[in-house]
Each structure stands twice: as C-alpha cells, then as structure tokens.
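G., before I forget:
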Amino acid sequence: MRVEQKTKRVKIAGMGRALAGEKINFGHQTRYRLLPGQTILELGVEAADQALKKSGMRIEDMDCIVCAMATPLQAIPCNAALIHEKMAKGSSISAIDINTTCTSFISAVDIFSCLVDIGRYENILILSGDTASAALNMEQRESYELFSDGAAACVLTRAEKGDLSEILYSRQETWSEGAHDTEIRGGCGLMPAFCMNEGNRDDYYFDMKGHRILKLCAKKLPDFVDRCLEDARISRDDIHVVIPHQASRALGIIMPRLGFPRGKYIDRVEQYGNMVSASVPFALCEAEETGRVRRGDLVLLMGTAAGLTANFLLMRY
Amino acid sequence: MRVEQKTKRVKIAGMGRALAGEKINFGHQTRYRLLPGQTILELGVEAADQALKKSGMRIEDMDCIVCAMATPLQAIPCNAALIHEKMAKGSSISAIDINTTCTSFISAVDIFSCLVDIGRYENILILSGDTASAALNMEQRESYELFSDGAAACVLTRAEKGDLSEILYSRQETWSEGAHDTEIRGGCGLMPAFCMNEGNRDDYYFDMKGHRILKLCAKKLPDFVDRCLEDARISRDDIHVVIPHQASRALGIIMPRLGFPRGKYIDRVEQYGNMVSASVPFALCEAEETGRVRRGDLVLLMGTAAGLTANFLLMRY
C-alpha cells in the first residue's frame, strides 16, 4: 500500500554514545564488551546524558522516554521503565519500548516523528543499545567476533522556524522468510530459561545464518531501495551521506551493489563491529561529532534487522 | 508537559479473541493456561483471523502488524516478525513491537492512531497476548492463581465519512518508583538463562508485590484520572463504559475509588483472571460481542502496567 507521506517538521536536537569498557581485537577488527558488573542501563544513561547536554535540555523537559532496543533487559518490565528508574524516578514521563531488532532506532524516529508532528508528544529521548555479549556463542565464530556492546541516544523534538531539519520519507518492510535467520530461540516465552538442558543449550545463544541473510538481502534490498527513492522523489546524488546498520563486514560489498559507492556511506565495522540497535545512532552521532554530517544535510538511515526487517528513512539533519 | 491533542479519525474495524486450552479453577476464579505444545503465536493468529474477518478485510490489506505484548516470545526477533511468519510470509507488511507491559494495547492504539491519522500507515493489525504461565511461581499464590494465557487482536483503520469513531484523548505516564514491584528479573540481558542456579532460580519467575502496587496506585491514580478527564473536557457521566486492565480482584475496590461505580466498568477477573497485555482488548472484544459496547459509544480504556505505567485513552467506538 503506497500512502503519500507528509514531511515531519522534527529535528534531532542532540546525540550521545557510549562503549562498553573491555576492548578486544580479532585481527584488525576491534570489539567492545561489557566489563563484569557493567550494564547496558549504565551505557544508555551515559549516552542519554550526553544527548540531553548537547540539546541544552534536561530530563525534566522530556515527555517520553523510548527504548528502541532489540533485546529485553528483563522480560518484565519494559526497558524504558528501567531507564526511567535510572534517569527520571519521581517524574511522570511516559516510558515506551519500540522493537524492530537492529533497526529499532530508525523505526522509533519514524514513529515518534509522526507523534511529535501531530502534537501527541513534544520532546522525546530515544535510547538504543543491547547486551550482545550476553548471548554470544564462542562456537559460532562469525557472530562471536562480530558484535560489540554499546549504546547511543538522541533527543527528538519539534523543528523551530528557521530550522532546516525534517523527516522527508520513511518506509519499513518485513520479509518473514528470514524470521529464523537471526534469532535467540531460548530464554523467553516460547522456551523459558527453566527448559534449558545440556541438549538444547545452543538454543539460548544468538544464532546467525549469515549466508541465508545475505541471500535474502540480495534478492529483496535493491528493489526496496529503488522503490523508496522513487517514492521519495530523491536521487542517490541528492543524498549527502548514508548511515547503514553496521550489520557485518559484507557492508563493503552490499552498499555499492545498492548504488552507494565507498565514501558515500559510513562503514565503522572494523572499529566497532555490529552494536545491534545501537549501530545506526552510534554511527550518526560519531558522524555529527566529526563534521561528516551537518545541519541541513540530506541523510539516509537504512538497514536490515532480524525479522527480516528493512528500514529506509530520509532526513534533513 | 500539557499538549493540546488533535482528535484522531480512526476506528477499530473488527476484533477477535482466543483463550488457552486448559481451563482450571481456584475456588470461584476460572483461569486458562496453554496446553502442552500450544503457543501464544497460535492464539494470536486465531484472534487476528477473527479480527480480520469481522473487519471484512484480509491480511493483504494490512500495511503494519503490531505486537502490543508485555513479554518477548524469543529475545530475537521481535514478536511481530514471528506473527508475520505465521500470517503474512511472502508479503512485505511492516512488523513492529510496542511494549508498555500490561497496557501495551492501549499504547499501541494511542501511537498508531496518530500514524493512521497522519497517513504513515492505513490499516494496522494489533495483537496482544502473553505466555503468563511460562513464568508463574507456584510458591507465590497471589500471582499463580491470578493469571491466564490468552490473546486478542484488532484492526485499526481510518474512519470513513459518516463513521462516529474517533480517538478523543490519550495520556500515558510512568512512575518508576514501582519499576521493581512487578517483574521477571531473569532470562534476558541483565540476567541471562545461563546464569540460573539453585540460589537464584526465583529470579526467573514472575514476581509481583501486590501490596506495594496497590499503595502506589492509591497515591497516584486518582489525580491521574482527574487530570485526564479535565484535559479531555469529559465528565465521568459522559463515559458509556470503562474497560480497565483486569489487573486483580482489587478492581472492585479501585474503580469505585476512581469515581467509576459497579456497572460503569467491565470486571471479568473472576471469569478470566489477568491476561497481561490481552486483558484490555479481550474485554473490549467481548463487550462488543455482547452489545455492551456499540458504535458511537464513548469508551474509556485505562489501566496500570508494570513500570509502573498508567494509560488513559478515550475513544468513540
């Protein structure tokens, strides 16, 4: 279903990012893992505090805390309530989780830009980050050597008169042929922790079928990107920089095939690996800090997530 | 922050509901639990199929599948991707999870009514339901005898010319003083399944501190409800029926204290118990089937959820 999209007059007022404390190397690839006792809650708060500071706002100015994370910290309550407890206890700020796994941040910006535009909320704090290291299987080298623990956050707010910022277009599709190509089968409702035994222990680890994902992406992504650009009436040349989900080292193969040559997109897989839901906002935050993204630039956030879900969001930063 | 709210011209086009297969009784209280091999995925699909049928629509007409559930089925991917696989494999319908625990359905209607109103999506399938029985602790009788496994679903779509349906007002607040009053600490990122041992096994069960929740609700809820009604410029007399979250047998004490006497609200705790995220849509669906709710009626969906989160949503059904 093709629906004409209204431009949303919102802006990212500030961003922040935080890395886990242990730095490890696999060849030239650097990864970060939580230190004993360190949690994604702490990293999330660190990133969110930076985002608030850069926005010139305080937590009291927010009216919604959104955790756009791929994995739960506890089965109950939602992640946003646990972040709320660390940052906003005693307040009545709303707390909501949005989850489309690795592209949750893009989905959250997509959804909450509509809510800000329509006046349902005014100032939103969005946090992403996952405890990747909690479920990595040393036996599956492809994923064990790929992931990092990190967090990133942003303040999303109404664009003021004179601001160039806006969300021009967003699209999300899910292709559930790939629902089991990236998964953690155990630990939750379908296979509780109590059911773990020596025979099914592997089901509680992160399990990635990299080859199958690449095959499904090769089949679906080029057409998806072409349709989005056509719908948005934007050409690849109009785009200043693409921030893709830092899915894997295959980024350097996939992005040129989608029509984005080296230099047009951010690739920090060697430096940070795949930080699950934090990858996109972390890369955007770093790009803003280094001057690679400036106010008014046309930026494309995109990526694929477990599901398989694909996101495409065009914003004037 | 008080923001003037726009009325959203959306309607619930159809609803459905499904109960787990095992019926058990604790005194006069009836509860439902999943049969061996039965899952919330099946119940969700059953409820969603009914909702589509009553709407006169097919899954192909939907452009977004939203799982508004309190608990994950797997840590990865999100619940909506797993439902998508059962109902919409081969399609490109978007799949998103929204989680505010027990009031997730109200939050999803709140959020997606804005997205439909602004034209981001057109037809949304919302499903709620949780595997409560997967984490119940026989030692904690208060919760063990309270919960049921069930699912409910609705199709949310644009209201046509002549339709009376609309969302008039919605508000959500989180009071994280109560973040640990209802929780499942283990199984996910903060305490993975691998960490379970004889000493911490209880952390992997659902844990409810009923007395503390009631105390926090007594302190916060009356003022919350008063403020919402004042903001919405609606009096209690204008409301045809209140559909509260079926939190516990204390409903009959709390609701009159909030100014809603017996007969004004739906109480099905004796018949079904607390079905977590499914409670509100299940009760709304049943009320519609029995004629208790009719088109054009002013209906209040409300409740408190683990977090502690409170939701209040006024709709003309």
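Chain B touches chain A through 84 residues (CB under 8 Å). The radius of gyration of chain B is 19 Å.

More on Monday.
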